[in-house]
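Quick note —
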Amino acid sequence: MIKITYVDIQGQSRTVTAEEGSTVMETALKNDVPGIDAECGGACACATCHVYVDPGWMDKVGKPEPMEEDMLDFAFEVKPNSRLSCQIRVRPALDGLLVRTPPRQG
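Predicted structure written out below.
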């Protein structure tokens, strides 16, 4: 079972079980995680599933593709560890992943 922990802006954490092959965004929606709006449904056409990947996980998660980088231009408070959660595919190597939600979504 792959676990992902989401931490909201108030510092509350929620650890949920994710299905391999799903995305970090889909997992958040399925588990009613606050702070991820996902208005485009995962099409990488908005920035409302923006998260901050914990720095210790950046190498395993990887860097955003060019299309995702373009969409991150529409996100608020982008940081070097910003990613769109719709673009992070859940796999066993991400068991224990920690992401934080921003103060607001794009």
